[in-house]
Every structure is written in C-alpha cells, then in structure tokens.
C-alpha cells in the first residue's frame, strides 16, 4: 500500500434540505386533511336542513288534501331550514373567497367611522338592548368591506348572546402601533371548556343559551372574523365569564404614518 485517500463530505446542507422537505410535506398533509375535514363538515351541515326541506315538500306534494294546519307547519319548517341553508352557503362562500382570493390593495380605513356605521346598523336588530360606544380616531390599512364584515359579526354575536335589557359596548383606541377594538356585552358568556374552540369552523356552544329561540347561527362567524383579522396582520381573542358577559378584543396594526 502506497497511500490512503480519505474523503470527508460535509452533509449538513443535504440533511437540512431533507429536513425542510419533510417539514413542508407534513404541513401540506395537514392542510389537505384540514380541507377534507372542512368539506365533510360542510356537507354534513348542509345535509340536515336539506333533508327537512325535501321531506316536507314531498309530503305537501304527495298529499294535497292534508289538513291546512299541517300543511302550514310543514311549509314553515321547510322555509326556515331553507333560510338556514342560505346562511350556511353565504358564510361558506365568504370563507372560501377569503382563503383563495388575493386581497385587494390595502386602503386607509377610518375605523371609527366604519365602527359607528356598523353600530347604527346593529342597533336596529336589538331595540331592547342598550348600546354604548367610545370611539377614538384610528386609521388602519386594509379592505373596508372585510373590516365591516368583522365588526358586524362581533356586534351581531354580542346582541345574539345577550338577553333583552343587556348592554353592548364598542370601544376603539390606538395603543402603541396598534388599533385596539373591544366589543363588550353583558350576555350569557362562554363556558371555559368552549372558549378554546369558538374560532373553529362550525363550532357552536350549547345553542339553548342564546337569546330566546336558537337564532340559527352557522358556527362560522368567528372563523370568518379570525380570517379577516389575520389577513390584516392582527390578532383576535375572546375573554368571557359565564353569566356575566364576553369581551372580543381585536388588535390591528395602525396604518403607517399614524402616531
Ligand atoms: P354562531 O353562528 O353560532 O354565532 P360563531 O362562530 O359566531 O357562530 O360563534 C361560535 C360560538 O361562540 C357561538 O355558537 C356561541 O356559543 C359562542 N359565542 C360567540 N360570541 C359570543 C358572545 N358574544 N357571547 C356568548 N357566546 C358567544
């Protein structure tokens, strides 16, 4: 033997690349699974009201001589379930559009003006509630239509889950580099075991606790709210005390140039 050649190869880069590939494959897999679960849940949620609509219409169609009162009930149920499907489809489309379309270029949005407009709109829904507000001037960069959606969802929930005579309060102020929006209500609140799940798609806490009869929510409102907030680079959380009320807190980055 005249000599020996020893080859050292640094495989750090290769290992890192393999690691990155594995991580992105896992992320993709999780995304596909979430999408499949969403489609399965959406079909399930739509199937139940559709079964009532079809069943009741079939009944009315096949038995033209059925007693008037029964016919009225069957058609009334079919109508309210068709309305429920309509709400579900509207919310599903909103979520899907938010997931798949590129948001328009951000505009400067005077949040206090939008908030006042939404509060006026919502106060018509709850004439038996008290509405309060403390709105400081705040400008954020974003999509005014989507921000309006966010405000309406939070205000509508505050009214929906607060019995007559309760108070809904909207607060807006700039804190540091953020706009801070709070929607407070004195309603039924959310149980601690439900609180971590309310932003999940289709999650609804016990509907019997909402104001009067089940107002027929879709369980998608807060999922849409979270999507809008995240698209604007912000964050949202709920604080709640069962029986005393709920506060939704939204933080959004201020538009550049604002103190
Ligand atoms: P829903 O259509 O059921 O209102 P959301 O996604 O808007 O769907 O809310 C999910 C759940 O969170 C609701 O079913 C309700 O149980 C709870 N929730 C949301 N906002 C409030 C609130 N202000 N007070 C009490 N519970 C609330």
Written description of the protein model:
There is one protein chain. This protein is of the alpha+beta class. The protein has five helices and seven strands, in the order H-H-E-H-E-E-H-E-E-H-E-E. It has helices at 12-62, 68-100, 111-123, 144-160, 221-231; strands at residues 107-110, 130-135, 139-142, 167-175, 178-185, 235-241, 245-253. The strands form two sheets. Strands 2-4-5-7-6 form a five-stranded mixed sheet, covered by helices on one side. Strands 1-3 form a two-stranded antiparallel ribbon. A hairpin with a 3-residue loop joins strand 6 (235-241) and strand 7. Helix 2 (68-100) packs parallel to helix 5 and helix 4 packs antiparallel against helix 5 (221-231). It starts with 11 loop residues before the first helix and ends in a 6-residue tail after the last strand. The model has no long low-confidence stretch (mean pLDDT 92).
């Amino acid at each position: 033997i005249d000599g020996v050649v020893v080859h050292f190869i640094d495989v750090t880069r290769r290992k890192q690349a393999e690691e990155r590939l594995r991580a992105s494959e896992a992320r993709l897999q999780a995304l596909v699974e979430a999408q499949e679960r969403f489609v399965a849940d959406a079909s399930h949620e739509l199937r139940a009201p559709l079964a009532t609509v079809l069943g009741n219409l079939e009944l009315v169609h096949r038995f033209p001589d059925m007693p008037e009162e029964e016919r009225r009930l069957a058609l009334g149920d079919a109508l309210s379930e068709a309305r429920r499907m309509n709400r579900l489809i509207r919310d599903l489309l909103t979520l899907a559009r938010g997931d798949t379309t590129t948001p328009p270029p951000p505009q400067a949005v005077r949040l206090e003006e939008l908030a006042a407009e939404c509060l006026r709109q919502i106060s018509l829904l709850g004439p038996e509630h008290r509405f309060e507000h403390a709105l400081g001037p705040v400008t954020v960069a974003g999509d005014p239509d989507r921000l309006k959606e966010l405000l309406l969802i939070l205000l509508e929930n505050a009214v929906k889950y607060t019995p007559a005579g309760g108070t809904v309060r909207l607060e807006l102020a700039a804190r540091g580099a953020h706009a801070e929006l709070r929607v407070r209500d004195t309603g039924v609140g959310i149980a601690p075991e439900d609180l971590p799940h309310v932003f999940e798609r289709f999650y609804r806490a016990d509907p019997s606790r909402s104001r009067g009869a089940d107002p027929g929510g879709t369980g998608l409102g807060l999922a849409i709210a979270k999507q809008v907030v995240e698209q604007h680079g912000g964050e949202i959380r709920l604080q709640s005390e069962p029986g005393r009320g709920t506060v939704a807190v939204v933080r959004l980055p201020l538009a550049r140039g604002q103190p």
